[in-house]
Structure formats: structure tokens, C-alpha cells
């Protein structure tokens, strides 16, 4: 059993702290937000995560978990201190490290004996060194300490499960002593350790998220090509995924990725490249493709609607993925703004995210309590989040309630034939037909910019 301090009770800090208490450590979670701490002391979680609140209550009761606003909790017997505060994107895509730096100063002032300081927040390469510098500058007496990078790979909605079933625990440190402390801390999780230097560990986090985002943008581009050539992206993805080197995950085509991590981390990695004099071309395109993908529903509507006067559009699903009320960087945000730009009336329904959308949108739209209300009198319906309950929709009723028949399925929830039979003009993502393929072939060749073309034709060929 160790004494652990976690600074920052956001999604990462709170889940990490609670799960460490669950495996027997004595954990104090610190946050400067007094209201949040007061609620947490009463067992009320500020975020919704499956199993989290129950676990918080149980560990408070069993006296392994407590909450505080005071860094003085960093007393003599603390072995590990986690930094788990926010690292939002700045305007220019760079990472705002001000909260991490502030906590490092506080830790420096409060440290009284050797401790391992763990960077859990997603921070750019070089941050361990920076945090160590700040701590050293703020120490009140000569105390030894180590700063370690230990990124998390938690998904929203399944963060508790992911903590207990992670594929690996990455530890970036040049100190054997610190590595041993963390091995001991995490031992009850029975997970594989991957030990490397701090810079590599910091990069592993960004590389993993950027790679997954790139996988999504790749499959979305394949989907766009399927539409023109008569392919079906679901079959293409399945066939590709059977190759174990590719794997069958993260190959679902749709209206693009969103959330608090992928867009921020891809931009962050691009910025790191810029700072160190490297242009990371692939992930630049990952972002560009994702932006294009979010505009896809509007492009489909523009091809089908000549006069936008009085047009009503219903949106099913606002959250960036099912299982959360999070709308940060959700494709729905962009799509709603685009539709408003066209002068459309917008009706929306999400099983849990109506309120979070309302709190970020600067203009009024109609929030509905059920999907049928959202599609009533609409010229078009766009499905943006694959909530399981949408699979149970009474599609005949939807069709009856709508004024016109355009149904854009941004997450490929339904089957084309069934939607056609029910009388919809159905637009899934990446499912082409033979007729379109013939037409597209006649329409001719896309002109590739000559300079771009020379980039890939000037390379060495192997035949
Ligand atoms: C992600 C990473 O998975 C996690 O490891 C990291 O710690 C935080 O970022 P999260 O943001 O919770 O987790 O969501 P995730 O489930 O990865 O989905 C991200 C986005 O990609 C969603 O908008 C989702 O709709 C989209 N996505 C995912 C696709 O469009 N297609 C896919 O095949 C998979």
C-alpha cells in the first residue's frame, strides 16, 4: 500500500485516483475547484463514467480515498504524486501547459521527502524535463525526486474498464528507483509494463492517438472512393481487418472523429513537428480529411436541395460517440453551424447530450425529447452518433413523420436495401452502386495537381 496524491480531478485524474484506491492504495485527490471537491467528498462524481461513482463511494467509505483543495497534503509519507490537470489546445494548435507548470511549482514548494512525480496529463515531448526544472527551482530544501512520464490510454465511457484492462502501462524514466516505485504501485493491475525514456513515453501517447486518427481518416477516404467505384466500405474494412497486421478496429467509416483527445493531440503533434523543424505531412492530411468528412452531410444536401427556403433538418445524435454526453469537437457542432449558415431550421435529439450541446451553441435550435419529434416535418434527417437505441427506431414511423425523404446515415447504422424499401432516399457513408460507378467513370478523371503528382511519381520504383 502506498500513499498517493493525484492533482487534478478531471476525467483522467479522478479515474486514475479512484482505481488506485480500489486496488488498495491510500489516495488523496486534490483540485482547486472547491465546489467540485465538496461534491466529491459526498461521493458525487462531476463526470459520468460507468462504475466510477460507485467506486468513489466505496473507497471513501473504506477510507482509502479522500479529497482536498490543499497541496499541504503532500506530506512526509507521500510516495507518488500524479499531475493530471488539463492541457487544452491554444488557438494555434499548441498545447497550453500553464496548469501543469502551476502544479509543478506547487509540488516544488510542498515536497518534503523523496517522491516520484508522474506526468499523467497528455503533454508534449520535453515536458518531463520542464516539470523537473520547475520543481527544482521551487524546492524549499535539497530533496531528491524523479519526474516520470506515464501516459494514459483511456477512452471516455469505458475509462474504468480500460484502467483495469489496459494493453500496456508505459513508463518513461531514466531512474531505476522511480521505475521500481511505479511497478510496485501498478502491480495489482497485472498488466504488461513498457519501460522507456521520458521523451519516447511522451511521444508514444501522441503517436498512438495520431495513428488511430489516421486510421479513421484513411478508412473515410476509402469510403469516399467506394461511393464512386461501387464498393461497400463495410466489406472493404472487414476484408482488410482480417489481416492481423492491420487489425479490425478503428476502421468504421463515418462523418469523422471528434472528442477531447484526437483533434487536440493530432494538432499537438503537428505543432511539435513545427517546433523541432519537421513537417509531419501525414497527420496534416489526417486533419484535413477529417474536416472534409464533417462537411459531407452538407454536400449531400446541397446536391439534393435547390431552394433552402423553409428547409427543416432533423439531427439524431449530438455526442462525439455513443455512451457519453461529450460534444467537444463533435462532428455535430460543425454540421449544425453549416446548416445554420444555409438558413435551415434545425431540430435535434440525443439521448443524453442535448444539454451539453445547448451549453456550447451560441444560437437557438430546437431540442427534442425523442427522435420522432426531431424528424417531424423535416426535409432531411442526419444521423451522427450510433447510439444503440437508434437501431430500434420505427423507421416507417420516421418516414411518415418526415416531409421529404432524405436520410443521411453518418455512422452506417442501417441497411441500404431496407431503407430503400421503406421509401427513403438513403445516403450511408461509403456504399456505392454499380450505376454510380459507371457514371463516375464517364464523368472522367480527377485532375491531380502536377506538383503533388511529381511528389509521388519521382520516388524510386521497384519494377
Ligand atoms: C481516444 C483514444 O481511443 C484513447 O486511447 C485516448 O486516451 C483518448 O482518445 P475517446 O476520445 O474516448 O478515446 O474516443 P474513441 O472511442 O477513441 O473515439 C474517438 C472518435 O473517433 C469518435 O468521434 C468516434 O466516433 C471516431 N471513430 C472511432 C470513428 O469514426 N471510426 C472508428 O472506427 C473509431
TrEMBL record:
UniProt family annotation = Belongs to the UDP-glucose/GDP-mannose dehydrogenase family.
Residues that span the membrane, as ranges:
none
Q: In which pathway does it act?
A: Nucleotide-sugar biosynthesis; UDP-alpha-D-glucuronate biosynthesis; UDP-alpha-D-glucuronate from UDP-alpha-D-glucose: step 1/1
UniProt superkingdom: Bacteria
**EC number(s) given by UniProt:** 1.1.1.22
Entry annotated with the keyword Oxidoreductase: yes
* Protein's name according to its UniProt entry: UDP-glucose 6-dehydrogenase
Which species is the source of this protein? Geosporobacter subterraneus DSM 17957
Its keywords, alphabetically, are:
NAD, Oxidoreductase
Q: Which InterPro entries match?
A: 6-PGluconate_DH-like_C_sf (IPR008927), NAD(P)-bd_dom_sf (IPR036291), UDP-Glc/GDP-Man (IPR017476), UDP-Glc/GDP-Man_DH_C (IPR014027), UDP-Glc/GDP-Man_DH_C_sf (IPR036220), UDP-Glc/GDP-Man_DH_dimer (IPR014026), UDP-Glc/GDP-Man_DH_N (IPR001732), UDPglc_DH_bac (IPR028357)
Is Iron one of the keywords UniProt gives this record?
no
Gene Ontology MF: a single term: NAD binding
**Catalysis performed (reactions):** UDP-alpha-D-glucose + 2 NAD(+) + H2O = UDP-alpha-D-glucuronate + 2 NADH + 3 H(+)
**NCBIfam families given for it?**
NDP-sugDHase (TIGR03026)
Annotated UDP-glucose/GDP-mannose dehydrogenase C-terminal domain ranges read 314-416
Amino acid at each position: 500500500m502506498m500513499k498517493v496524491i493525484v492533482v487534478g480531478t478531471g476525467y483522467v485524474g479522478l479515474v486514475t485516483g479512484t482505481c488506485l484506491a480500489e486496488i488498495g492504495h491510500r489516495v488523496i485527490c486534490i483540485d482547486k475547484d472547491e465546489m467540485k471537491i465538496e461534491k466529491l467528498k459526498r461521493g458525487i462524481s462531476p463526470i459520468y463514467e460507468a462504475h466510477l461513482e460507485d467506486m468513489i463511494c466505496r473507497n471513501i467509505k473504506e477510507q482509502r480515498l479522500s479529497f482536498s483543495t490543499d497541496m499541504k497534503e503532500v506530506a512526509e509519507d507521500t510516495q507518488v504524486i500524479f499531475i493530471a490537470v488539463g492541457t487544452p489546445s491554444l488557438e494555434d494548435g499548441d498545447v497550453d501547459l500553464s496548469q501543469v507548470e502551476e502544479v509543478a511549482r506547487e509540488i516544488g514548494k510542498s515536497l518534503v521527502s523523496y517522491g516520484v512525480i508522474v506526468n499523467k496529463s497528455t503533454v508534449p515531448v520535453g515536458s518531463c524535463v520542464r516539470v523537473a526544472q520547475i520543481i527544482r527551482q521551487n524546492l524549499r530544501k535539497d530533496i531528491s525526486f524523479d519526474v516520470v512520464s506515464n501516459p494514459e490510454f483511456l477512452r471516455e465511457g469505458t475509462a474504468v474498464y480500460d484502467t483495469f484492462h489496459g494493453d500496456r502501462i508505459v513508463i518513461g524514466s531514466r531512474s531505476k528507483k522511480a521505475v521500481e516505485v511505479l511497478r510496485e504501485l501498478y502491480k495489482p493491475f497485472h498488466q504488461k509494463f513498457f519501460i522507456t525514456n521520458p521523451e519516447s513515453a511522451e511521444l508514444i501517447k501522441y503517436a498512438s492517438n495520431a495513428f488511430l486518427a489516421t486510421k479513421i481518416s484513411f478508412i473515410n477516404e476509402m469510403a469516399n472512393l467506394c461511393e464512386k467505384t461501387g464498393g461497400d466500405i463495410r466489406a472493404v474494412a472487414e476484408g482488410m481487418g482480417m489481416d492481423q497486421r492491420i487489425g479490425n478496429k478503428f476502421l468504421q467509416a463515418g462523418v469523422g472523429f471528434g472528442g477531447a483527445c484526437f483533434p487536440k493531440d493530432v494538432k499537438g503533434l503537428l505543432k511539435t513537428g513545427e517546433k523541432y523543424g519537421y513537417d509531419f505531412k501525414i497527420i496534416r492530411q489526417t486533419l484535413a480529411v477529417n474536416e472534409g468528412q464533417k462537411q459531407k452531410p452538407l454536400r449531400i444536401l446541397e446536391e439534393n436541395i435547390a431552394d433552402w427556403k423553409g428547409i427543416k433538418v432533423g439531427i439524431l445524435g449530438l455526442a462525439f460517440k455513443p455512451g457519453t454526453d461529450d460534444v467537444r469537437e463533435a462532428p455535430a457542432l460543425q454540421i449544425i453551424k453549416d446548416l445554420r449558415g444555409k438558413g435551415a431550421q434545425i431540430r435535434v435529439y440525443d439521448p443524453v447530450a442535448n444539454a451539453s450541446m445547448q451549453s456550447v451553441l451560441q444560437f437557438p435550435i430546437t431540442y427534442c425529447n425523442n427522435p420522432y419529434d426531431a424528424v417531424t416535418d423535416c426535409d432531411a434527417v442526419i444521423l451522427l452518433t450510433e447510439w444503440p437505441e437508434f437501431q430500434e427506431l420505427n423507421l416507417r414511423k420516421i418516414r411518415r413523420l418526415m416531409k421529404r425523404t432524405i436520410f443521411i446515415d453518418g455512422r452506417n447504422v442501417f441497411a441500404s436495401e431496407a431503407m430503400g424499401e421503406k421509401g427513403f432516399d438513403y445516403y450511408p457513408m461509403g456504399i456505392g452502386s454499380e450505376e454510380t460507378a459507371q457514371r463516375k467513370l464517364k464523368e472522367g478523371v480527377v485532375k491531380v495537381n502536377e506538383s503533388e503528382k511529381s511528389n509521388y511519381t519521382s520516388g524510386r520504383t521497384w519494377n
